[in-house]
Amino acid sequence: MTRRSCAIHAVGVTCALLLVVGIGLVVAQVFRTLMHNRLKKEIVLVEGSRVFESWKTPPPPVYMEFFFFNVTNVNEFLEGAKPEVQQVGPYTYREYRYKDNVSMLENDLKVSAYNTKSFVFLRERSVGDPAVDSITTVNIPAWAVMNKVKGSFFRSSMVSIWMNSLKSGLFTTRTVDELLWGYEDPLLARISATNAEVEKVFGLMYKKNGSNDGEFIYHTGKQNYMDYGRVETWKGQSQLTFWTSNQSNSINGSDGSAFHPLLNKDERIYIFTPDLCRSIYMEFEKDVEVKGIPAYRFTPPRSVLASKEENPANEGFCVSPQECLGTGLLKVSPCRKGAPVVASFPHFHLADPKYVAAIGGMSPQRQHHQTFLDLNPTTGVIVRANKRAQVNVLLSRIPGFPKTRGMNETVFPVMFLNESVVIDDASAARVQKLLLIVTLVSNFPLVIVGLGAILLGVFIILLVRARKQKTSTEDDTSYSPVSDKEKEDPQNGTYIGLTPKADPQD
């Protein structure tokens, strides 16, 4: 066997081995499985893991925008007319968030922490000065007190007298700062003088700057990657007590800051949010890309805040059978000290059209009012998010308060917020690097198959060339004698003269 034939055989054997091994690895997904197992071990909430520090102190900047609804026809509304509002905003704050008092529990299977938030005003991202700009809106403290005492003739009469003497109306005009961070309400101050449990200061974000929502205990994901970031208890409770069914009181999912890796499009993402006093879910909407990172967009579907008729599972969120609101609304008074506060998406996005039609100035738009999460499916990292929610107050006629007689029952918008984040460049570069490694390792068998295919091509070329060369050699070495008798060289002996083989037809 010549060297050339040995080389051809070696190339053929190597090619066959590469193709068999490569195809076998592709079919068995060995490298992909190994890489995914590695991710499951790396993405855990324990000291020294790839994600622990960024979970405790998220690097991307978070912005909180507040938009208020300024009422322009208070007197007409009190007489039964349709209310007219104008949106004012945004008033933007940089939100600094970090996990405080972090403690590992149960051999690193769980971790406890407090979610602390603080806010710093950003004038360049805002429409005006919150200390100067005034908003006319619903007097929430007054409505909360009126709802608290309704049904009691004596207490209703007393509160009505106090409101008249203190000139505390059904609507109020306050600065943005006061509405957000608190002001001393005269009616609450009068009540707190005899009832120490009543806070005399009211603000939509009162005591939320530099504070936390209570202790959370999370699963680290060490035991099961699907539990990564999942809330086990909040304020020591594994179940809520605000609602009327076990399903509604369940604490499901994460707190919105961490999601397990290896997401798929068919699953529901659950998030527990203390602001709504409940868990919500989100479903896949579409594929997106943020700073070169592929992501799945998850959004809450209409069924999350659907009426009990539209989604029977939501019946547990009815405060009472008489206080069961329609699609798109959630009355959160059980966790707001009985205040008639109603949550919705901004401009009643995804709500029953009647709520939009009842307020002049409402214009729901998916682009501006939708809540969404863009998650990289491989790592579970949040690459972009917008959490949008609206605060409303349920206004209705209340016996004992004459000023409410001419009003129609209305879900009145007060303000909505937009909490947004986009992954920063440094974090994006780290995620891209990790995804590149995952892709290369997972697709390594394809490289082997590719090499096998190249060698197969080389093998075929060598075979063809060898066949041609063999044929050419046979043709070139064919001979016939110069004459019928061999000629003899007197000096060198007998020789044979090579001439081209004659054409058999000639």
Compute the separation of the termini in Å. Answer: 39 Å
SS summary, helix count: 12
How many separate structural domains? 2
Q: Helix/strand/pairing class, anyone?
A: alpha+beta
| Total strand segments | 19
Poorly predicted regions are: 492-499
Principal-axes geometry comes out as: elongated
> Biggest sheet, open or closed, and with what strands and sense?
13 strands, antiparallel
- What integer is the average pLDDT? 87
Helix content: 25-40%
Q: What is the alpha-carbon Rg in Å?
A: 37 Å
Report the portion of residues in β strands. 25-35%
Structure in words:
This protein has 506 residues and is α+β, with helices and mostly antiparallel strands. It has two domains: 1-46 and 429-470; 60-423, no CATH class. Helix content is 29%, strand content 27%. It has twelve helices and 19 strands. It has helices spanning 3-28, 30-42, 52-56, 74-78, 140-149, 153-166, 176-181, 186-192, 353-357, 366-369, 425-442, 444-476; strands spanning 62-71, 85-105, 110-121, 134-138, 171-175, 183-184, 201-202, 211-219, 231-234, 269-273, 278-290, 293-299, 330-331, 341-344, 372-375, 382-395, 410-422, 488-489, 493-494. The strands form four sheets. Strands 1, 2, 3, 8, 9, 10, 11, 12, 13, 14, 15, 16 and 17 form a 13-stranded antiparallel beta sheet that branches. Strands 4-5 form a two-stranded antiparallel ribbon. It is elongated, with a radius of gyration of 37 Å. The chain starts with a helix and ends in a 12-residue tail after the last strand. The model is unreliable at 492-499 (pLDDT under 50).
